[in-house]
Amino acid sequence: MSLKYQKFLLFGDSITEFAFASSRLPNFDEFSLGAALVNTYTRRMDIIQRGFSGYNSRWALKIIPQILEQAGPDIVMATLFFGTNDAALGGSQRVDLPEFKLNMKKMVKILKDRGIRPILVGPALHDKNNWEPRKPEEVAAGFVRSNENNKLYSDAGEKLAKEERIPFVNLYQAFSSERNDSWQSLLSDGIHFTGKGYEVFFNELMKVIEESYPEYSPQNMEYKLPEWREVDEKGSVLDDYLNH
User: Fold this and answer.
1) What is the DSSP letter of 4?
2) What is the pTM assigned to this prediction?
3) Is 56 in a helix, a strand, or coil?
4) What does the mean pLDDT of the chain come to?
5) Could you tell me the residue range of the domain that residue 197 belongs to?
6) In terms of DSSP H, where are the helices of 2-143?
């Protein structure tokens, strides 16, 4: 046992950037993906968040080497959650499907070459009836989206994950499975997640970690330092841990 913490990197777009938000609606506390992960891995592993609103796989590929360098050593797992912006039907965020898959493949290789276990996350559903009335200028400029296109990018991510033999978090399927056809309640504005949406994400993420990387399931990881009742008054028992 030592005080050296391994790291779990969350790398993605705005959905990752907002992962620690707990009150996206006024006076209403919501489930927070980031806080849930920190709590789940407390005294076991550090959670590193690197989310960039509006980014696509092309821009992510440019920055990932420096992201990894800045985050430092001991990263053992990383999510790659892009595709929501790539799948836009127009505008500067759009990345065609073949390039998207190639960009994701390159990022997977970058992670694997560093001994980091990748987890691909695919885009979820899109509620245009919620999104488009909020963004008339963006819609007029061609920044529109569709569930059909999101599904294509999700399928491409899932196919790549199978080719690379790495786990895939299928949010499109998970959101579609919401009971009583209430998937719209998982989205705050048609794209970004409510607390309920993040809770679905959290549950799916923990499921694939358990299945694909069980050594990094919380129950299988070392709990840092002994419980306080096991520590003598002077703290001498801690010396052995601090010298590792």
Assistant:
1) P
2) 0.94
3) coil
4) 93
5) 6-242
6) 14-17, 33-40, 57-71, 97-113, 128-131, 136-140
